[in-house]
Amino acid sequence: MSQTTEGPTPQDPAGDDSQTRRDFLTLATVTVGVAGAGLAVWPLVDSMNPAADTLALSSIELDIKPIQPGQRVTVKWRGKPVFIDRRTPERIKKARADDGAKMPDPQADKDRVKKAEWLVLIGICPHLGCVPLGQKSGQPRGEFGGWYCPCHGSHYDFSGRIRKGPSPKNLQVPEYKFLNETTLLIG
Amino acid sequence: MTAPSEPPQASSTDGKPGIIEQAKDWIDYRMPIFTFMEHELNEYPTPKNLNYWWNFGSLAGIVLVILIVTGIVLAMNYTPHVDHAFDSVERIMRDVNYGWLIRYVHMNGASMFFLVVYIHIFRGLYFGSFKPPRELLWWLGIVILLLMMMTAFMGYVLPWGQMSFWGATVITNLFSAIPWIGDAIVTWLWGGFAVDNPTLQRFYSLHYLLPFVIVGVIFLHLWALHVHGSNNPLGIDRESAKDSIPFHPYYTIKDLFGLGVFLIFFMGIVFFAPNALGEPENYLPANPLQTPAEIVPEWYLLPYYAILRSVPDIAIPFTGIVLMKAKLAGVIAMFGSILILFALPWLDFSPVRSARFRPITKQLFWVFVVVCIVLGKVGANPPNLAVFSGIEGFKYIHLGQIATTYYFAYFLVLMPLLAKFEPTRPLPQSISEPVLRDRDESGE
Ligand code: HEM
Ligand code: FES
């Protein structure tokens, strides 16, 4: 590439033209090489994404009959805690009354549940991943009565929405559906 | 070590070169490794005025070797699986011959590594070792620091205790602050939907790999060092051969003495307070359903953790419009606190290297050291705890914000200002000059 312009030589009869040809060949080789290397690296990178068996483990069925109104239960799903909260009518009322309040990640309570009585949440604080307290009676539940994350002080309300503290997002709602009146499928 | 290129020496009685000399010559002719070693380790000319702050580079190298050796032996008994990792470490502690010793040396060795390297870096800051022509050397050092932090973080996950698990959870979650692709990156880091077995296994693989990468970067670090040689406490270049002495025996013996003192300290901790620097919580097996009351990293990462937690939402004053959430801003500040070191040669562009000749720099440097220690203290305490039990309004978060402000102001504001305006004291003519002058004055 760095060859300076020379006149036509026996090996190089085309003179300057050969330079463009050589440049083209170099460029083409480099391009194909880089693309090839990129393609070869992708399987290595992607091998670090969740494997098929990890993905396959990703739904659970749960019998919710024994859960009493006002009771909260934790189950493990995809290695994380899932909070199941059978809400009492007054908690539902409080959650809905707050729909218009100022909050960092506004969302109406009815968009966060399939049946108002059952609030299903991923029990991981969206701030930096701690498990918020409040599942067991006696644990602190924060200023809004829902959950409290002790790690950096995030307060969640009866709908699991962030109301105070560093978390930018509400407690997330996992994918779930009710298979029948008493069975919940998470995932 | 003798130079193979010199005429054969009388190492055997009949005047012919001994068998060892011959073997060395044979090898050296084909691959001049002995010439290289002679050149870089024996006759290597070194400033004659280095003080004990110059011991910490070689100490760091030795600690790294200790970590690699103990690590390899630990790996022979460790099982990287969520169901067995914790128990396999307990087995090392209880059943494996000297397993307790090997683990305690490895565990506390990591602390020693950071201690020694932090002193090494502060040395560089004080004496201006990052200034031309040593910028690349300085950069390679920061790369080493970043690699060390990654290695130590992943190593801490391996025993799969409560702090292992929750530390890993909090730190990997930092990446979710990256806009749009953050969550995908975190899933990729985990290899799942939470810190779990795939995470543990990849961390083990990388924890084994990275120290050898560090060895490689140290090689480059030393290569860069040996081009222009060490800086020195006066921060001036060497003028004549009079300013240098050969590395061996002068600095080999000094490094060796320092090593002795250091090992007494290191082994004192290993034998008398092996868990003093650790977190008792990590002797409980990991439980993904229960967060410990307080998540704290190891001491050497506390200052960065304090910076992470000190940064609030970045908003336009009086409007309430949030430009950047605290989480992202904190993460940027935390990484920035280290990355800013790369810019040092340009932030402090004063031609005078050593703080000895810079009266204000010298004082602000010590304030900076104290601020780093304060940040460590802040990182170890809950943000909403009062700093002094009498004064409720002044909490650790406030102390952290003050310290973080100084940390960045020191680099971004004070350094450039001082470089431009600080009156510096006159530099000596040469490294030998102050010594010779003192001798004249004392009438010798
Ligand atoms: C594993 C970690 C490290 C090892 C083993 C190591 C080793 C060494 C050694 C043996 C020297 C020569 C002796 C001395 O001047 O003390 C040196 C010099 C130096 N190192 Fe490091 N180093 C490490 C990390 C770092 C880091 C993290 C930085 C900075 C961010 C750094 C910056 C420097 C500088 C600027 C010099 C030249 C110092 C001078 O001549 O004044 N090093 N290193
Ligand atoms: S992890 Fe919950 S507040 Fe930080």
Brief digest:
Chain A is an alpha+beta fold. Helix content of chain A is 24%, strand content 21%. Bound molecules: protoporphyrin IX containing FE and FE2/S2 (inorganic) cluster (FES).
Poorly predicted tracts of residues of chain B: none
Mean pLDDT of chain A: 88
Bound molecules: protoporphyrin IX containing FE, FE2/S2 (inorganic) cluster
Query: Helix/strand-derived class of chain B?
Result: mainly alpha
Name the features.
heterodimer; A: alpha+beta; Rieske Iron-sulfur Protein; 2 domains; 3-stranded antiparallel sheet; 24% helix; B: mainly alpha; Cytochrome Bc1 Complex, Chain C; Helix Hairpins; two-stranded antiparallel sheet; two-stranded antiparallel ribbon; 6 strands; binds protoporphyrin IX containing FE; binds FE2/S2 (inorganic) cluster
Descriptive overview:
The complex is a heterodimer of chains A (187) and B (444). Chain A is an alpha+beta fold and 187 residues long. Chain A has two domains: 15-49; 54-186, Rieske [2Fe-2S] iron-sulphur domain (Rieske Iron-sulfur Protein), CATH 2.102.10.10. Chain A is built from three helices and nine strands; from the N terminus they run ααβββαββββββ. Chain A has helices at 16-46, 52-56, 89-97, and strands at 60-63, 72-77, 80-86, 118-122, 147-149, 154-156, 162-164, 176-180, 183-186. The mean pLDDT of chain A is 88. With 444 residues, chain B is mostly helical. Chain B contains 16 helices and six strands. In chain B, the strands form three sheets. Chain B has a two-stranded antiparallel sheet with strand order 1-2. Chain B has a two-stranded antiparallel ribbon with strand order 3-4. Chain B is globular, with a radius of gyration of 25 Å. The interface between A and B is medium-sized, with 28 and 32 residues. Residues 54, 56-58, 60-61, 64, 117, 120-121, 124, 127, 129-130, 134, 137-138, 141-142, 144-145, 214, 218, 221, 225, 230-231, 341 of chain B line the site of protoporphyrin IX containing FE.
